[in-house]
Amino acid sequence: MTRVYLTGAGPGDIELLTLKAHRVIKQADVIIYDRLANPEILEMAKDGCEFVYVGKEDGRHTLPQDEINEVIYQNALKHKVVVRLKGGDPFVFGRGGEEGAYLQERGISFEIIPGITSAISVPAYAGIPVTHRGVAVSFRVVTGHESPNKEVSQIPWENFKTDDTIIFLMGLHNLSKIATKLIEIGKPKDYPCAVISKGSTKEQIVVTGTLEDIVKKAKGVPTPALIIVGKVVKLRDQLKWFEQQ
Ligand code: SAH
Question: Which pTM was predicted?
Answer without folding.
Answer: 0.95
